[in-house]
Request: fold
Amino acid sequence: MWRRYGDAFYTLLTLAVFGFETIALGALSLSFLLGKATGIASTPVEGILLGVVISTASALALLGLYLLSYHFVSNLRDRWQAEHLDKWTEWWIGLALTGPGEPAGHAPDRRPLPRVAVDSVLSLLEAVKGEEGDRLKEALAGHGVDRWFLRRARAGHLTARLDAIEGLGKARLPHALDPLLGLFHHARPVVRRMAARAAAGTLAIMAPEPGPDGPHARFIDAIKQADLQPGVVQESLLLLETRAGPILRELLADPELSDSLRWVALETIGRLGLADMAELAAASGTHPDPELRAATFRCLRRLGSVPEAAQAPLLGAVDDEVDFVRVQAAHAAAFVEPEAALAALEPRLEDSSWWVRRAAAASMARLGELGVASVRRAAESHPEKAAREMAVQILLEADVLTPAAARLATGVA
Amino acid sequence: MWRTLLNGYQYVLLIYFSSLNVLYALFSCIGLRAIVVVFAREFSQGSLRDLLERDVYKPVSILVPAHNEEVSIVGSVQSLLALQFPEFEIVVVSDGSEDETMARLIEAFALAEQPWATRQDLPSAHVRRTFRSLTHPNLIVVDKERGGKADSLNAGLNMARYPLFAAVDADSMLDGEAILRASRLFVEDETLVGVGGTIRPLNAAVVSEGRVAEARIPKKWLERFQILEYARAFFTGRAGWSHFKSLLIISGAFGLFRRTAVLEAGGFRVGTVAEDMELVVRLHKHFLKAGKPYNIRFTPDPICWSEVPSDLGTLRRQRNRWHRGLWETLWLHKDMLFNPRYRRLGLVAVPYFWIFEALAPVVEISGYLLVGVGIFAGFLSPRFAILFVVLAVLYGMLASQLAAGIETFLSNRYPRLRDRAVLFLAAFLEFVGYRQFLAFERTVATVQVPFKRGQWGKMHRKGIRGSTQPPDAADPAEQEATPAGV
Reply:
């Protein structure tokens, strides 16, 4: 979406313009204010004004020249980049498939590698795993790219630092994990966020090493201590993919875990569909914090299964005093034994909250023939108008009812 | 006596001029840093893909208010249906349309009328009928009585099912990833209540399959000037205010909001011509009063393309309305002015909008008059006056170039080297009549505020074309973005 080169120089140029404008306009204003009452057009002020005009014109010319040059050069560079990216990609694929004997032509005899070669291998590394991926990583290390990234990630200018963190995230180098974890405490939120994602991506390909000093334990410590938004932690945990299970298990087992991290863990279990963790997740269904109760039921709904021990608390929560908990419990009730679920859901068709009525009707419709029949009855003869309307709506969305039949049932012309 | 007063006013003008230009330059620095340095790296294509693959998103309801949009509505909805986003619904609200808007929608999307169990979170004009598309299950159309744009958005909000909603103008076109890019911010920041994207002029762009395939410079200078205005407003001004957590405007053409936050604040205000700005100011006020943490930000990446007026009459009406809208909003929330309770908003942002936005045209016009009077009365040397005018033009050009410079970093920029030169020339030519014309119209609008409250005036649209558009076939159109300002 954005070109990432030349921006550092342009930032400097803009800063220079800003500095110049402040000084020039400050001097002009001061000379005006200090001038004689009738001397607004006096020679000293005019002299300063002339100076400001000339220097502003020069700044404008410089800026215009830079932009034209940048446009011209970047057009050429984009074309060159596109051509060379293909060549390098071919070369790296050759290397990954054939091993260390370098494939013919276009061999990277230069150190360091050109940027286009690095970009090309990093893109490949996102898709290439296993031995082939290891070969590419070895080649990167052979050219010192990993050390270069690590150096810039630790101590570069913000631009260079962010580029380096992104590079490390794509390269997924195990020895970069600790430096990335170290960046979880960086003063800039954007650095913390990018480091969290890069570290998670790296951890996702590392073999599990149990124990308090293993990489998983270090990652857990880092996310517990870092100042990261829950959404960023959630993204990071999702990036762990198949490695997420043990980490989530350990997080939920911690009685001291903060509510926000517990919430994130529950959300992640649901999104990753870790059905074997349903029981562990269900334990938070009676938590005093309604956000956590809601997250628990949302998680169970996403998993599509409610452990037997959790069914009674879940059906009880369909009556919870907090409406958004009732909504999530009603949704999850679709995965409970139909008779018991219907008994809890039917009264909720009269709930004061539109969202609860909708969740209850939608869940009832998912409870097989028994549920659909119950929604049909509600559509036809429920004493509450709001319940009838919602039942019709759900039947329409489930294609059980046609618009024409619905119009007939509700009297819409 | 008069001479002393005029001399004093000259000082005021100079301080005003100096402060404004320094602020423009400051915002350019911040905009560049916020946009190119941070966004370009953090929100790369790769990280967006990760987001999609792992279902890290919040579903979005897209609200499209439409009043007599028969020419653009089908193309606009088709473009929205093609968005790259896994879970969204489109709620088109026909606001008492008297033309063929509804008929065209029914025909194009096989709409079937059906009853709808609607919430009544917000009051709105009577909903006559609701429709669902048989070909696109995520398309809902509401046909309601005329109540205005804000009323239509409120009706749409009552229908919306998802936690986020986007308000999109019927004559706008979103980039394919626009919703994804904006909505990911809500996942990362639980306190975020609103995000505004960048609006770019659609005129002359090459459109293919509901998407802008290539940006092109229009032939008319009037449209070219607006390219610079939009660049200044979005790439520098809004980025700067957002950095200071004081963003007061999210364009009505495209903004993404947290539904519960907007409902909590009372929805869109009916009876104003700047419902977009008014909502953002009210959200600030609501959360500051309640002492709840919140965030409203601008992000440059989701890009919305909108047709800009290509004739003077439409442009004049549009700017008049924008300026009245600005005044209406500022006046409605006048209690925020210099009020420390509203922190930097009350002490910096709102005063800035009063002084450097609302009053700007009056100051500008009075400046032109003063120069004339000064030369005529002999207390201002012609040489000095000329130099000062030259300086003002140069600073204006500098502000335009700093903003247009940010656009060169976009991959979908104006592609030809000649385009860059044209924009440079446009930055000069806009001082030859264009700016003065707009300053005059905005001054007129300032006077009209008490008499034309809430009046939109007649809109003239030609609409979005659904297929490839020849580069120079720009049409006059009225778009609904907010007052541009810085």
Notes: The first helix of chain B runs from residue 2 to 42.
